[in-house]
Amino acid sequence: MRDKEDERVDGSRRTWLIATTVAGGIGGVATVVPFVSSFAPSEKAKAAGAPVEVDISNLKPGDMMTVAWRGKPVWIINRTDKMLADVQKADKEVADPQSKNPFSMPEPDYTKNEFRSRPDHKNLFVAVAVCTHLGCTPTPRFQEGAQPNLPDDWPGGFLCPCHGSTYDMAGRVFKNKPAPQNLDIPPYMITGNTLVIGKDEKGEA
Ligand code: FES
Fold first, then answer.
1. CATH class (in words) of the domain with range 20-204
2. Ligand 1 pocket check: which of 160, 175, 176, 181 to mutate, most ligand atoms within 8 Å of Cβ?
3. I need a surface site. Which of 115, 151, 189, 195 has the fewest CB within 10 A?
4. Where are the domains of the chain?
5. Cα–Cα distance for residue pair 92/95, rounded to 1 Å
């Protein structure tokens, strides 16, 4: 499974650029999900922090897409039930299983649960794809088991290419890694097939 994300990191201010992003589901079936370019707000409004709306109607189980919110990449993953089981399997291996020590924004109340997602859409995972060590973008490693740079009992998750931090399928960092905290979960809400990032019942972030 591979992604096709181009990333540029400059020294003082890490920026990124996505051409296309994808990761397919388990079993090596990769589905290309184009970078979302049809948000309702203007580019200028998005950069300033306006919420972004994303059509998730074509996001099949196991698929992932990446969108921009506040100049950062945000992952949207339709986790399979197997991926959710992988989260439970990783519970004892992650440094902060309850996400009690948030990174750069408060954990939304509705994602304070074992899957870090809204209970009525528990398969949908929304997270800011910025490694909590030094800000690189981790890469999806959904396939379980032995593979380069990962332990033989790898349960599936994400690997940061910069210094090797690993995260589970709920964005929780594994123990004894350079990254100190779990990935941020932005405020979000779901209406029908539309995901809104940066806004929830309490208002805009
Ligand atoms: S930036 Fe991710 S491990 Fe260092």
1. mainly beta
2. 160
3. 151
4. 20-204
5. 8
